[in-house]
Specification:
It contains 3 helices and no strands. Helices cover 53% and strands 0% of the residues. It has a domain at 1-18 and 39-64. It has 64 residues and is an all-alpha fold. It has helices at 2-12, 34-40, 48-63.
Length: 64
C-alpha cells in the first residue's frame, strides 16, 4: 500500500508524508492481478504509472 501511495504522490508531483498507526482490524489487501489474467484472460492495456498519470492530468484539466 505504501508503494502505491508513494507512486500516486510522485505522479501528482507531491512528496507525501505517510503516517502509520496500529490497527486491531486485520485485513488482507492484495494488489495482484494474476487471477484477472489467469481466470478472465484479461491483460492490462496500460502500465499503472501511465494510467495514474492520465488520471492526474484529467483531474488537473477538470479543476482548471
Amino acid at each position: 500500500m505504501t508503494e502505491l501511495v508513494e507512486l500516486i504522490g510522485a505522479v501528482a508531483g507531491n512528496r507525501l508524508r505517510i503516517g502509520y498507526r496500529d490497527s486491531s482490524a486485520a485485513g488482507n489487501l492484495v494488489g495482484d492481478n494474476a487471477a484477472m489474467k489467469d481466470v478472465l484472460g484479461v491483460l492490462p492495456q496500460i502500465a499503472l504509472r501511465d494510467g495514474l498519470q492520465e488520471v492526474v492530468e484529467q483531474l488537473s484539466v477538470a479543476a482548471a
